[in-house]
Specification:
The protein has 507 residues and is mainly α. Strands 1-3-2 form a three-stranded antiparallel beta sheet, with helices on one face. The protein has a three-stranded mixed beta sheet with strand order 6-7-8, with helices on one face. Strands 4-5 form a two-stranded antiparallel sheet.
């Protein structure tokens, strides 16, 4: 019994020892694994730290290179400034020496003048004494005679001196004017592109030409009547032409037709809808363009109506020169000139921008663009110099300051440079406008459009006011008045159209 207990204890102790040994080995393996894992992580961290250190070193080197470049640039700037300063100092020293010499010359001239005055007094005294003895004159009579002679001689010398200085002043003024103009021209170079009388519209296919014409010409008739342009459809594949002298009207017509072609639905009702939409978009775009120009030039605030008119100048031409391009060119040239002459740069810029603002109103209101421009600028409280510049650039007033004079000079400079304007185009536009105005002045006329390069005028009359017989008489009257008042080559076709339209809605 005792032996069994001892054996049991022995085996138990043996099992415990075995278990202890096994567990020890397992813990040792786990420890070795953890140790190797920790070493691997430490190595990775060390590698990453070295990598970050290398990156930091590279960045530091790059920063040092950048700082070195900046330092070198600063050094060059300082050297340049020092050189400029040294040149200025030399110039000042030279001027100081010149001034000192001038002062010395003045002192010498003063001494010489005093000596001459003393000599002249002595000579006068001697002459008076001689005259008294030889001419039996009293002292006062001799003195009066001599002073009269000296006075006449002095007048002649004074006149010669004034003429000399006037000539020098003119030469100096001419040099100064040439300098100012050269500065303005070299510091501002504007683009120039002559405005044409036709816009080309590309079509997806020739089949669209038939859709634009419509059944029995219904669509093209509606387009020409509503848009007020001449639509030319010829044998040229894939294109149609939109012709009119009015840039704004032509731009709206071009956009309307392009939208109709993209949409695919072309009929009188759709034409009217698209036309109204395009007109509204153009008005918004015009105001936005005017606001952008005013902001870019730093002339804000400005009344919204004036900004809209500035934007509208894009669709106005004068002798083939775009009015907005001309206006911006004048504004920038005038600003440069005003600065050179010691004037107000911003005021000259504003006056230049608004000097032709009346041109945006002439096509709708008629009349002189100078008077229209002055009226609208006064209504919105513009500066008196702006008003004067509008009057002065066409000779209605004399310039009252540097800024107005700069605008006048810039206007001539912009208009007279080679290729800026075409007299032929302007005379053509004037003739076409006269033809339209003759027709529009007649009673019962709704609209009148000169088309086909001014060789035809299309007149739309109110069917309720004029009958067929009256239409004939009206066409004769318009043709006769055009013959008497307008000069033109060849002949002009007067086409008076009377149609009655009734609109009802099915509900």
């Amino acid at each position: 019994m005792t032996e069994n207990i001892l054996l049991s204890l022995f085996f138990m102790m043996l099992g415990i020892a075995t278990t202890y040994l096994i567990m020890g080995r397992m813990h040792k393996k786990q420890f070795n694994y953890l140790e190797s894992e920790a070493k691997a992580k430490a190595k990775a961290i060390e590698y990453e730290a070295e990598h970050l250190l290398d990156e930091a070193k590279v960045k530091i080197q790059q920063g040092e290179v950048l700082l070195e470049k900046k330092f070198q640039k600063k050094e060059l700037d300082i050297v340049k400034q020092e050189t400029e300063l040294a040149l200025e100092l030399k110039s000042l020293e030279k001027k100081e020496r010149t001034l000192f010499k001038s002062k010395e010359n003045i002192r010498k001239q003063e001494k010489s003048l005093k000596a001459l005055e003393k000599k002249q007094e002595d000579e006068i005294a001697k002459t008076i004494e001689t005259l008294e003895k030889s001419a039996s004159m009293t002292k006062d009579e001799a003195k009066k005679y001599l002073l009269e002679e000296i006075k006449n001689e002095s007048k002649l010398n004074f006149a010669l001196t004034v003429k000399k200085y006037e000539k020098e002043a003119e030469e100096e003024a001419q040099k100064r004017a040439n300098y100012i103009l050269s500065q303005a021209v070299t510091r501002y170079a504007g683009e120039f592109a002559s405005d044409r009388l036709m816009n080309t519209i590309n079509l997806p296919s020739d089949a669209h030409k038939g859709r634009i014409i419509g059944k029995e010409g219904r669509n093209i008739k509606s387009l020409e009547q509503l848009l007020g342009v001449d639509i030319i459809i010829d044998e040229t594949p894939g294109v149609i032409l939109v012709s009119n002298f009015n840039l704004y009207r032509r731009a709206i017509a071009t956009k309307t037709i392009e939208l109709l072609v993209d949409d695919g639905r072309i009929h009188p009702g759709r034409i009217e809808d698209i036309h109204e939409k395009v007109k509204a978009e153009f008005e918004e775009k015009i105001l936005e363009e005017g606001e952008t120009i005013v902001l870019e030039l730093g002339l804000y605030p400005m009344d919204a109506e004036l900004m809209r008119l500035i934007g509208r100048l894009r669709y106005r031409a004068s002798y083939g020169q775009n009015a907005l391009a001309h206006t911006l060119e004048v504004a920038k040239l005038a600003a440069v000139m005003a600065v050179e002459m010691g004037g107000d740069e911003k005021l000259a810029l504003r006056a230049g921008l608004l000097h032709d603002i009346g041109k945006a109103l002439t096509q709708e209101h008629g009349g002189n663009h100078v008077d229209l421009g002055v009226e609208v600028c006064r209504r919105h409280g513009e500066h008196p110099t702006v008003i004067n510049a509008i009057y002065a650039h066409h000779g209605h007033e004399e310039p009252d300051g540097v800024e107005s004079a700069a605008v006048c000079a810039a206007d001539v400079l912009s208009a007279s440079r080679p290729g800026a304007r075409r007299e032929v185009l302007e005379s053509f536009i004037k003739r076409v406008k006269e033809i339209e105005e003759i027709a529009l002045d007649k009673e019962g006329v709704l609209d009148a459009y000169a088309i086909n390069a001014g060789r035809e005028i299309r007149v739309f009359v109110d069917a309720g006011k004029l009958d067929d017989a009256s239409v004939y008489l009206l066409s004769k009257e318009i043709a006769k008045e055009i013959e008497n008042k307008v000069q033109y080559p060849g002949e002009i076709k007067v086409n008076v159209i009377r149609e009655k339209r009734e609109i009802q809605y099915a509900r």
